[in-house]
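thought: fold this chain, then report.
action: predict
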Amino acid sequence: MSQIIHEASSAHGSDEAKRPRRRVLMCPFTNPTNRYIEIQKDLYRSVGYDVAPLSIKGLLKGGFADLFKPENVLVFHWLEYRPFRRQKGTAQLSFGGSLLFAFYCSLMLLGRAKVVYFVHDQAVHDTEGFNRRLSMRIIAFVRRLADFRVVHAPDFQSQYRAQYLPHPLYWDSPGHQPRNARPQRSAPLYSMLGVIRPYKQIDAVLDVWPADCKLHIAGHGTDAYVSALNEIIDRKSLRDAVRLESRFLTDAEFAQSIADSDVLILPHSADSMLVSGAFFEAIGLVPVLIARSTPFMKWAARKFDNVILFNDASELPAILRSVNESWQTYANNASHCKALDEFGWKTCCRRYGHYLETVGGQAAAVEKPVTE
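observation:
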């Protein structure tokens, strides 16, 4: 019996070797301002896929044939941003971008490879009025075109007919930036990190910010919005409490700013993104996260006892007083192990590998026990 099982195993291994190498074609393939795309590529490679760019240049270099191989997968992130161009702090419809968007949609329709669309946002950032409503319709349109949809927020699975996959932790992924340990403080340092744009509603936070709490705001911002924030800081005499750095942070600088933070504040508008990337930089490292009560953050607060929610910025002064008064209790509570269990690299490799096998129709059959 053992010889039969060994021979069957050898035959299965031989079949695996003969099977053509499966490929993920990604759009976009690079993002110089966010390591998320690189982490996604590393994930696909870790579970046995080749990864190639889904772009006009890549298709012209021989990638066009990959569209018609059913074992391959086309993966799209943020495709809804293609028809828009950011101009003076707002996103406006672009003719050239719309043509490129139509091109990618035609690839979805014509190819035989499976299409997976990662839904990141409810609307394109910094759109207003008609453009915002249009961006929401575009997102809905792409969801319908895709064969499969993925969300990083579990509560959106039913609404979008999508599968939840965990967003990988930045600090547990290959190539993560080294960082120095957080200094011990008698009072917490609060932070808001990442792009400084209106959808984050930083102005509403500053309007109620107390002068006895230290706050560090850092990230690349639009001139008009940064100017408005500086006006609030001056009007409320917060220069001694609030440090505002409007500049692009390198990956290393962002990682160190996260590591230096005692409390991270995530005030993002509830109708913009499904999840915040900064959350996955911070959870498991930063002792306390204070976040607007979005569906994802409600889910996170049920899992992690160091996530504190607010519905309106007017609630923040009371929350800050409570954190300050109990800081020694909070200081070493980063939920490190729980974050690894939910979003860590090993967890993500297992979940993504199984999902891609399912998408490709190649999920392994359940093995039945061998009986004599």
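thought: worth noting. The longest strand covers residues 214-219.
final: tokens above.
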